Amino acid sequence: xxxxxxxxxxxxxxxxxxxxxxxxxxxxxxxxxxxxxxxxxxxxxxxxxxxxxxxxxxxxxxxxxxxxxxxxxxxxxxxxxxxxxxxxxxxxxxxxxxxxxxxxxxxxxxxxxxxxxxxxxxxxxxxxxxxxxxxxxxxxxxxxxxxxxxxxxxxxxxxxxxxxxxxxxxxxxxxxxxxxxxxxxxxxxxxxxxxxxxxxxxxxxxxxxxxxxxxxxxxxxxxxxxxxxxxxxxxxxxxxxxxxxxxxxxxxx
Amino acid sequence: xxxxxxxxxxxxxxxxxxxxxxxxxxxxxxxxxxxxxxxxxxxxxxxxxxxxxxxxxxxxxxxxxxxxxxxxxxxxxxxxxxxxxxxxxxxxxxxxxxxxxxxxxxxxxxxxxxxxxxxxxxxxxxxxxxxxxxxxxxxxxxxxxxxxxxxxxxxxxxxxxxxxxxxxxxxxxxxxxxxxxxxxxxxxxxxxxxxxxxxxxxxxxxxxxxxxxxxxxxxxxxxxxxxxxxxxxxxxxxxxxxxxxxxxxxxxxxxxxxxxxxxxxxxxxxxxxxxxxxxxxxxxxxxxxxxxxxxxxxxxxxxxxxxxx
Lengths: 253, 309
Prior knowledge:
The complex is a heterodimer of chains A (253) and B (309).
Chain A: H1 2-8, H2 10-26, H3 33-46, H4 51-72, H5 81-121, H6 124-130, H7 135-172, H8 178-187, H9 192-217, H10 222-252
Helix pairs in contact in A: 2-7, 3-7, 4-5, 4-7, 5-7, 5-8, 5-9, 5-10, 7-9, 9-10
Chain B: H1 2-27, E1 36-43, E2 54-57, E3 60-70, E4 76-83, E5 93-97, E6 106-110, E7 123-124, E8 126-127, H2 133-193, H3 195-218, H4 220-259, H5 264-270, H6 273-294, H7 296-300, H8 304-308
Parallel strand pairs in B: 1-7, 2-6, 5-8
Antiparallel strand pairs in B: 1-4, 2-3, 3-4, 5-6
């Protein structure tokens, strides 16, 4: 009886454990300057080093969206500019944040979980605690901070490159001209869209880094445990990105 | 090394911020680097206009609506950004164009006389309110619906009238229908009775057409030959007709000459002197013959030479 109740309440327990971990990471008695070096290098690894793969994915998703929208919207009554009006908001609202999120869940989430998990199973975290450092703040805060700051940067890059990829393919494939694309994008542009995309990026950055930190920090069971938490970090980041995507869309649009 | 890492992070964040702001301004069609000037206008209704809507002069985009706001007197105040090289003379006015339901509204500026001085920065341009195209359609469709209802009511009345008319004349129609049916029955009976002869007739017609077919099939060559000959004959006839025509023309010429007094025959026909002379000659000859009968000796005396024989 008590066993099944524990099993039922497990998700809630995990939520509590997760929230406490994140809260303790930021409620730190130490000065932030202690973590500055760590934060900068995490920013480089999470943000700047992810730029090429994010740009590549964004360019291709923008290009594919353009081709497919032009394929779907073949009508005498629709001007070619409509393609731009559909592609640009799709990239700004959905494609750029979600594609970036999935890529970073694999690239960044797995790396964070593997790092922290290895530190846990090789007892480096215990060593940090012995040295008198707040291991939670020292390891988790810089990573989440870097994710939250750098993810919007990656989102902006993804938007720019994605729309650029769409325009290039529209021209090369003969679907519509740059002028038509830009005019269509401008005609139906709502200034709220990029801010909404930016807030998605902010939330996704927090989800990926914090979920991965949780998975890595509470790793148990040696090398196998590290592999398990690495996989879990990537998968759970993706799942929570999808949930957050829907929740944000329903709440803000 | 540490410093350069911070520099890279700072640079990428700054670049993202710049791209974000410029991107939004670009997609809002707010000019990024072009120099512009500002005009104000008032409309009764914004009609779907919003910041970023294009401004057009004679169909050319010349700027954007910067923002749309409500004045204290509940009129809509609109700030327009126009490219510096666009000349809007005094006496110009603005209207809202496009269909708001499609979200493609824009401000149209109708330029005044080109000689007038240009409206300067922060100037005011008259805004004329026109009903939105969709609103106009909606208004019309209400009227249309009323008309359709009226027409339907009329149609109902008409149907009722027709019904009552048929009811009143039903008595007349029924005997007519009965008579018609009798006629049809009689016709059917006749056909039944005379079926044999009708079939005979049809058979005959068939035989006849078969014969005709065989005839025309068998003598097709002869027919073609005959036709060829007929063609030749027609050619000959045509030639003859040509000759005939020439003859007629000659005859015409002769008759013409005769009528107009050329040649001997013409004179004979046309000149009466000959006739008169002939008459007088005949008269003289008659009196001579008379004289000869009465006095033969008078002439015979001189014929002594006869006596010789």
